[in-house]
């Protein structure tokens, strides 16, 4: 049986994953609150009044800034408050207020030091997601594929390296790559697989130490002939998905 092992969202692009017991999904949308914020690293030209997709290099991200993985963060939806911790240092800020954003920006500017390309600025816009792709989708990671990479590398591969929303158990390694164009159902929610996910240097980053330590991209390329691991699927029918739910191919 293919099942949901875990669910995670990333409220702030480049910061910590937050594990969810369940997620209520709407057609054509991401998980609620996923990548709702990003931190501009120098001028990006992002316009909150007319938001549009921009590449991740405009923002703080693991691909460019591996040490971000050392930060532990949590976002509270009820209070709009982001909390970040690093080696005993801690900051909290209400991201709905200028003062709250300024506190977060100052903490991150100090942490990033010479990796800051200019002023750091917390960005958001209602309904916008700072996803790696323009289309609003949900990302799925086959845990067996991550385990297979670990076998080849001779070291465990933490699936959080892939920063996916849904971790799936009970599959054959790499079978997800054959699902493009297919539909599946989890709970009442139905999905259509739009594309495989091309990986970047973010996957080389140890999620605990914040350093590049494994050649994930090179290993996938050598073993598979591409750079893909995981799939993007669009929500077609609304519904709740939860840990332990079965995935059924349609």
UniProtKB/TrEMBL annotation:
Report the GO molecular function annotations: catalytic activity; molybdenum ion binding; pyridoxal phosphate binding
What is the superkingdom listed in this entry's lineage? Bacteria
Question: Which InterPro entries does this entry report, sorted A to Z?
Answer: MoCF_Sase_C (IPR005302), MOCOS_middle (IPR005303), Pyrv_Knase-like_insert_dom_sf (IPR011037)
Which Pfam family is one of this chain's hits? MOSC
Report the residue ranges that make up the MOSC domain in this protein.
Answer: 110-250
Q: What is this protein called?
A: Molybdenum cofactor sulfurase
Organism of this sequence: Terrihabitans soli
């Amino acid at each position: 049986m293919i099942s949901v092992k875990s669910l995670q969202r990333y409220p702030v692009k480049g910061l910590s994953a937050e594990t969810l017991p369940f997620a209520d999904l709407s057609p054509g949308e991401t998980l609620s609150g996923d990548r709702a914020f990003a931190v501009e690293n120098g001028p990006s030209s992002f316009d909150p009044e007319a938001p549009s997709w921009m590449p991740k290099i405009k923002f703080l991200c693991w691909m460019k800034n591996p040490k971000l993985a050392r930060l532990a963060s949590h976002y509270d939806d009820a209070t709009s408050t982001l909390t970040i911790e690093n080696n005993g240092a801690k900051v909290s800020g209400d991201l709905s207020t200028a003062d709250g954003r300024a506190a977060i920006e100052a903490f991150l500017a100090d942490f990033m030091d010479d990796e800051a390309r200019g002023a750091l600025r917390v960005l958001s816009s209602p309904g916008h997601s700072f996803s790696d792709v323009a289309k609003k989708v949900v990302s799925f990671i086959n845990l067996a594929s991550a385990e297979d990479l670990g076998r080849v590398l001779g070291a465990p591969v933490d699936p959080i390296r892939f920063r996916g929303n849904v971790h799936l158990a009970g599959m054959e390694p790499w079978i997800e790559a054959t699902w493009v164009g297919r539909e599946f159902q989890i709970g009442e929610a139905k999905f259509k697989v739009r594309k495989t996910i091309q990986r970047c240097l973010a996957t080389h980053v140890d999620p605990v130490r914040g350093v590049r330590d494994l050649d994930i991209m090179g290993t996938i390329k050598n073993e598979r002939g591409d750079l893909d691991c995981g799939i993007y699927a669009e929500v077609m029918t609304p519904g709740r998905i939860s840990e332990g739910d079965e995935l059924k191919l349609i």
